[in-house]
Amino acid sequence: MKIAFDTIEESIIPNFKGGEKSYAAKMFFDGTNRIMKGRLIPGASIGLHTHEDSSEIMFFTSGEGYVIYDGERIDLKAGDVHYCPKGHSHTLINDSEADLCFDAVVAAQ
Fold this sequence. Notes:
This protein is mainly beta. Helices cover 0% and strands 59% of the residues. The protein has no helices and ten strands. It has strands at residues 11-14, 22-29, 34-40, 45-50, 54-62, 64-69, 72-77, 81-84, 89-93, 100-108. Strands 1-2-3-10-5-8 form a six-stranded antiparallel sheet, with no helix packed on it. Strands 4-9-6-7 form a four-stranded antiparallel sheet, with no helix packed on it. A hairpin with a 2-residue loop joins strand 6 (64-69) and strand 7 (72-77). The chain is globular.
């Protein structure tokens, strides 16, 4: 299956999961799993949340920021991957002057 993100409209989600500013995303959802291209503008964040029934893998394609994963800060930049397994918590913060862009997969388990 091919997912053509260039044909998917970008959604702007304010205060996603209680975060600051907004989260921009192109999302594919098959009813079980989500595959996304995400973008956080400078100063934006995705709020702290726990993956109760899923895991998430984030591949950073540009920019810099950090996650708080189970209470620990982890700095991230283009080329890095962050994994949040089922039952764990994380938040994502763009504290840089450029957009933080990533591809993400949220897979149900």
